[in-house]
Amino acid sequence: MNKTPNSNRKHIGIFGKTNSGKSSLLNAITEQEISIVSDIKGTTTDSVTKAMELIPYGPVLFIDTGGLDDTGILGNKRVETALNELKRTDFILYVLDATDSDLNYYKEKIKELKRYKSSHLLVINKMDLLSEVETENIKTQLIKEMGLKLKNTSEEEFFKNDIVFVSSKKRENILIFKELLVEKLSSEEQEESIIGDLLEYGDTVVMVIPIDSEAPKGRLILPQVQLIRDCLDHGIKSHIIRESELESTLKDIKKIDLVITDSQVFKEVDIMLKDRAPLTSFSILFARQKGNIDILIEGAKSVEGLKDGAKILIAETCTHNTSHDDIGRVKIPKLLQAKTGKKFEFIFKMGREYPKNLEDYDLVIHCGGCMVNKKNMQSRISESGKKNTPITNYGLIIAHLNGILDKSIEILKK
Question: How far apart are the C-alpha atoms of 58 and 29, rounded to whole Å?
Fold first, then answer.
């Protein structure tokens, strides 16, 4: 579980006012001193992340953010940083200080936090500071101001309405909270497959993986590993080869249900394959799993309308060193200009850096997004849509420029 990539973890964002106990909650959940805890407001500046296994749910990534009510020039930047975390947050923990139960502020902020359609729990923290009378008072306040209709005032009834009471200082209390969180996460979990729902049990796929200057020495890259595992999970037989072994593999295996190739050798594999088996790419499969495939397909086709001098954003979610064979910085720009006969302005962004001024671009060409979660990828697609900027990804644009887009997405129509 510790080796599970963050892109495959449920992202749980912790939000709330300054000094509401967000960092204390994270430390209590993980039983480690992950975040700095202080009575001084604004202690948490940049977001703090912690990957862990939330037993028995599975691997998750907690994100501790700065206070939403921070002020001043630096404070406003902290708030902006916190809100940016919503783009990758699957589930929200909104922490409310039991001694400062400003529900109007919470109701106002949760609308903003839920704009990316994340589910949430309202966590009433610091319950150890309240007397029994004060505890009943805050429950009464919640019922009245939140318009709750409960059978009684038990904590079980409040949990049914996505409200939970905790004390970060009481381990038993935190253990119960984690059980409730697991229950909430599990109730809305949807198992997603990369390829398991496209093929049948016992089908055969051939994965073509070029070993070139871009291939890491001694290991496979994440999309390849994830696809192999998905095949294993669904009883799909997989063969891993280089493009130089494709011809002999086609002779050795009588029935191949799908060939999956790295985008860099899409054209070469298609020529060798000669329509003897369906063909697609790793990048296209991930575009389907993590994004809106229809929007990305339309984005690929939009290159026909690009004008000379168009501004194109090449975006990658991970940071890595580049080479003369780099697919994003070298191969795609060359192929795009060669196929269209036009010259374009290319801007490159890597890691979590993603422009807000997407309206200034004529097209976004994104990587497969294997290093980020689905929520982050869909947020980027949504942002592009709001600015009316077409967006596509590496595999789809390469397939389109090589005239094999329709062929490469045929398997997705099953």
Answer: 14
How far apart are the C-alpha atoms of 203 and 184, rounded to whole Å?
A: 35
Q: Give the β-pairing of 391-393 and 279-281.
A: unpaired
CA distance 70 to 186: 33
Cα–Cα nearest to 199, from 271, 285, 262: 285
Model pLDDT for residues 192-247, shown as the tens digit of each residue: 789 999 999 999 999 999 886 566 677 788 888 889 999 999 999 999 999 999 99
> 294-408: which CATH topology?
Rossmann fold (3.40.50)
Helix, strand, or coil (residue 83): helix
- DSSP code of residue 306: P
The contacts of residue 38 (CB under 8 Å, 6+ apart) are none
Does pLDDT of 323 surpass 90? Answer: no
3-class secondary-structure state, position 61: strand
Whole-model pTM?
Answer: 0.68
Q: What is the mean pLDDT of the chain?
A: 87
Angle, CA of 279, 247 and 404, to the nearest 5°: 25
**6-187 has which fold?**
Rossmann fold (3.40.50)
Statement: 204-284 belongs to CATH 3.30.70.100: no
Q: How far apart are the first and last CA of the chain?
A: 33
Those residues with Cβ within 8 angstroms of residue 294's Cβ, 6 or more apart along the chain or in another chain: none
Q: 183-187: long-range contacts (C-beta < 8 A, 24 or more apart)?
A: 184/91, 184/119, 184/121, 185/10, 185/54, 185/57, 185/60, 185/91, 186/57
Nearest to 362 by CA among 348, 377, 345, 343: 345
